[in-house]
Amino acid sequence: xxxxxxxxxxxxxxxxxxxxxxxxxxxxxxxxxxxxxxxxxxxxxxxxxxxxxxxxxxxxxxxxxxxxxxxxxxxxxxxxxxxxxxxxxxxxxxxxxxxxxxxxxxxxxxxxxxxxxxxxxxxxxxxxxxxxxxxxxxxxxxxxxxxxxxxxxxxxxxxxxxxxxxxxxxxxxxxxxxxxxxxxxxxxxxxxxxxxxxxxxxxxxxxxxxxxxxxxxxxxxxxxxxxxxxxxxxxxxxxxxxxxxxxxxxxxxxxxxxxxxxxxxx
Length: 266
Hints:
Number of strands: 4
CATH class of the largest domain: Mainly Alpha
Number of domains: 2
Strand order of the largest sheet: 1-2
Structural class: mainly alpha
CATH architecture of the largest domain: Up-down Bundle
Radius of gyration: 39 Å
Shape: rod-shaped
């Protein structure tokens, strides 16, 4: 067997040690155990899936925050609507009294009409990010990581018709009494809608917390798969470095011996 062949066989383990040293250096410098698919194909696939869940969970939490903003706008508007409707009911009660003249009822009706116009204006102009809050079927929010209904929450809406006064004026005692009954019903409907929005806000808070927890847990799980065990990798690198240094010394000695043999053959 040729001397070169013997040398190659002897140095083969040291070549593998050199490759291990290179891998360990890369893992320690990046902090990642998986730097390419061949390092751990299955682990990379799982970690990538977990990373996707973490990203979508973070966005879901942001979506829930947007839902809270919409709910805040709706709640504030409905509180104003409730206050306006209550004032209208007070005016209707006053106009229903038989001691008032038509002129006095006309004066009360002017405020009644002005309040109704302001109420409708607030309902029709309430919006978030260019999206109407009212006169819609509700705002559906994506608060989960799948496309199914279990990942969605809808903030309820209301129509102008359900909140506006049905009685157009309080110019007579009879009209005022009809308006009073109608407005009491509207106050009840507004309060019911406020309760629904409050329930949606509570659910959104729970969903946001769940999405935030999902992001943290997914990132932690991905990290456990990807991150390098520093102590173990340092140990591997040191062992590989010792072998590489030994191989270098052996190679130098082999070269020297080869030259010595050749010189004797001359």
